[in-house]
Amino acid sequence: MLSFISGMFRSNKTADAADLEEKYTRSSYAGAKGARTISYDPTLIKALEDDHRTLISIFQRMWSEGYEKQNYRQLSQLLTQFKSGFQAHLIKENVRFYVYLEQALAGDAHTLQVVKDFRTDMNEIANAVVQFCKRYNHEAFTPEMVRDFKMDYQKIGEALTRRTALEEKELYVLYQPS
Fold first, then answer.
1. How many Å apart are CA 109 and CA 105, to the nearest integer?
2. Residue 178: its pLDDT value, please?
3. What is the pLDDT of residues 7-53, one digit of tens each?
4. Which of 63, 91, 38 is nearest to 149 (CA)?
5. How many other CB atoms sit within 10 Å of the CB of residue 172?
6. CB 26 within 8 A of CB 32
7. pLDDT value at position 103?
8. In this structure, are residues 103 and 37 in contact, taking their beta carbons and an 8 Å threshold?
């Protein structure tokens, strides 16, 4: 597992989303209503936090190695790497983290709603991040792209910084063995 996590950021190749989803949603369902389908993983939160640090590093490199140096080829490569790592992180979060929490918190309607709101918010941020990556994934920038990149980069950076802090301080603490 560790080799997969560290490897997903070294190249543009990521595991197929369907393979990941199948691996982590194999049901232990025995026919009883409400049976758990995702087990607690004591390494999951550390893995998600490690993903955050890796993604933040790649995001910062977009600026320092790509935009500031006007090296749009490097920026394009970093955008591709960031998008792939970001999407792999979201799959891991959606399939292993949120599903487990929704199962574990089924009897706590208020906290479950908070978790669902977090998930909805993350989906909106994810759409913006993917659109940002697609918009600027070019090896040559027009003057308009150069002008707009700074503002869009700052907006995405602020959203990701806010979200990462909230997840790590408020949401990840809910992930407990049941």
1. 7
2. 84
3. 333 333 344 444 444 444 433 333 345 565 899 999 999 999 999 99
4. 63
5. 16
6. no
7. 94
8. yes
CB 152 within 8 A of CB 134: no
Q: What angle do CA 41, 126, 151 make, to 5 degrees?
A: 135
**Distance between CA atoms of 102 and 115, rounded to whole angstroms?**
8
Q: How far, in Å, CA of 115 to CA of 156, rounded?
A: 22
Residue 11 DSSP label: S
Rounded CA gap, 98 and 2, in Å? Answer: 20
For 45-78, write each residue's pLDDT tens digit: 999 999 999 999 999 999 999 999 999 999 999 9
Residues 6+ apart with CB under 8 A from 27: 37
What is the model's pLDDT at position 52? 98
Q: How is residue 24 written in tokens?
A: 């982590």
C-alpha distances in Å from residue 114, one per residue of 108, 134, 169: 10, 30, 14
Cβ atoms within 10 A of the Cβ of 74, count?
17
Task: State both tokens at 50.
Answer: 């490690």
Rounded to an integer, what distance in angstroms lies between the CA atom of residue 90 and that of residue 96? 10
Residue where the block lists tokens 């970001």 = 86
Q: 87: buried, middle or exposed (CB in 10 Å: 19+, 13-18, 0-12)?
A: middle
- Sequence-distant (≥ 6) Cβ neighbours of residue 154 within 8 angstroms: none
